Amino acid sequence: MAASTRSEKDPLGNKDVPSDALYGVQTVRAQENFPISGLAPLWPFVMAQVWIKRAAAMTHRMTGRLDAPRADAIIAAADEVLARKHDAQFIVDPYQAGAGTSHNMNVNEVLANRANEILGGQRGTYTPVHPNDHVNMAQSTNDTIPTNIRLACLSQLAAFVEAFEGLRVALAAKGREFDHVVKAGRTHLQDAMPIRLGQEFTAYAGSLDRGIRRVKEAAGYLRDLGIGGSAVGTGVTVENEYPALTVEHLRAITGLDLPVGEDRIQLMQSMGDVAGFSAAMRVLAIDLSKIASDLRIMVMGPRTGIDEIKLPAVQPGSSIMPGKINPSVPEMVNQVCFQVMGLDTTVAIASEHGQLELNVMMPVIAFNVLLSMRIMTNTARVFNEKCVSGIEAHEDMCAYWVERSAALATALMPHIGYARAAELSKQSVKEGVLVRDMVRRDHLLPDDQIDDVLDLRKMTEIGVPGGGG
Question: Does pLDDT of 127 surpass 70?
Fold first, then answer.
């Protein structure tokens, strides 16, 4: 029977490694040292690191620094990982030693062991392909992980934008569908002047449009790559051709528009570009959460709330109250947005906490920004498909509440003055009489002028009610 473990050695000594593992001794040490969350690295963080290793091997084959058999074996191993054949081999907890050395070595060991198998060798021997000497050639954790984070974020951007564009389009469509529905506006959660339900939804779409544009603009700064900076950004141990060639290969591998970074020291020192990208997602999450909260208010009821819209029923709302339906999807949206705001706070603090030539907090930055992208992408898609696209207007309730708004007295102000209009508003609430009926009762306007001044639809557009003032 084959042994269940093999022995490997690193600068700290010998360590048993599972015999069937593609990872090696340094990965095992990291697994033992950091049993923190029980979470695996997010796939984009693995994928981008493998992209870099593949591109580096291609570059070194071109320059002759790495012989073709070794380079081709590393490339073939990388292709297997990118085909998701070895996902279980990436085991380092997101909360790990600084900079991401453990993650980098996990990838180096997996590719080295698989490359050796491809060349007829055995796992754990690291010959003829060594994880440091060959897979990590001319690289450091310090330049590959910042490059990784940028590539990983950019790799998920198209899906992120697509999901939010779909949600924006759905909200805009509801804006057109509901354009004829006049409802009570509310400020401070109190009666305000009328607004059309369609105007509200059109504005929601506009907020998302601005947010998407902010995220895309922030993503533009991520395209500069500092690969080739090596240990401190100066490029020590790196051949002159390496940065440009590696970026060229990364362009081909990823399909992304990637310039060669002009200042590799700056790109290593600062996580500001990633923090800016995360912050743009936070702003989008703020607007998204506001929209979800608005829907929860407008659907409140159905008998004891304002009940101005109807949301699709997606699941029973109570384990004890029969027939109760909750705004489940908007509730989920709020929770995701709160999480994204917290993740961004972590990114901001971690980005500030870089010292001198390196930010060692990159693992938590990578995990948080990529998790934000994942949950926001999925949330936008679910919000669209299971909620927004199926929203209906409760037109009768919208008409009921807007006619009872005490704020309608505002339309009278150009004709009877602020003081008299304020008095009328208070009296309407006190007596429970509609503003329109009080105007007739108290003969505040000629009968043929009342309906013009109190035209609810006209109040939703720019202009002076009744043409006065």
Answer: yes
Which architecture, in CATH terms, is 404-467? Orthogonal Bundle (1.10)
Residue 1 scores a pLDDT above 50: no
* CA atoms of 156 and 196, how far apart (whole Å): 36
| Portions of the chain given CATH number 1.10.275.10 | 5-137
Phi, psi of 139 (to 5 degrees): -125, 165
Strand-strand pairing, 5-10 and 182-187: unpaired
Q: Which two tokens stand for residue 123?
A: 């796992």
**Where exactly does CATH 1.20.200.10 map onto the chain?**
143-228+261-396
**Tokens in use for 460?**
């939703």
From 4, 7, 318, 351, the catalytic residue:
318
Burial class of residue 357 in the structure, from the number of CB atoms within 10 Å of its CB (0-12 exposed, 13-18 middle, 19+ buried): middle
DSSP class per residue in 157-191: HHHHHHHHHHHHHHHHHHHHHTTT-EEEEEETTEE
Higher pLDDT, 3 or 340: 340
Per residue in 36-78, pLDDT (tens digit) is 999 999 999 999 999 999 999 999 999 999 999 999 999 999 9
Do 35 and 19 meet the contact criterion of CB atoms below 8 Å apart?
no
* Per-chain mean pLDDT for the chain: 95
Looking at residue 3, its pLDDT comes to 63
Confidence of residue 468 (pLDDT cuts 50, 70, 90): low
What pLDDT score was predicted for residue 251? 98
318 is catalytic: yes
Average pLDDT over residues 379-387: 98
Q: What's the pLDDT tens digit per position in 262-301?
A: 899 999 999 999 999 999 999 999 999 999 999 999 999 9
CATH number of 5-137: 1.10.275.10
List Cβ neighbours of 129 (8 Å cut-off, separation of 6 or more): 70, 73, 74, 111, 112, 115, 116, 119, 121, 135
| Dist. CA 248–CA 376, nearest whole Å | 31
How long, in residues, is the chain? 469
358 DSSP β-pair partners: 355
| Other C-beta atoms lying within 10 Å of the C-beta of residue 233 | 23
The domain 143-228+261-396 is placed in CATH, from the list 3.10.20.70, 3.30.70.330, 2.40.50.100, 1.20.200.10, at 1.20.200.10
Residue 123 binned pLDDT confidence (cut-offs 50, 70, 90): very high
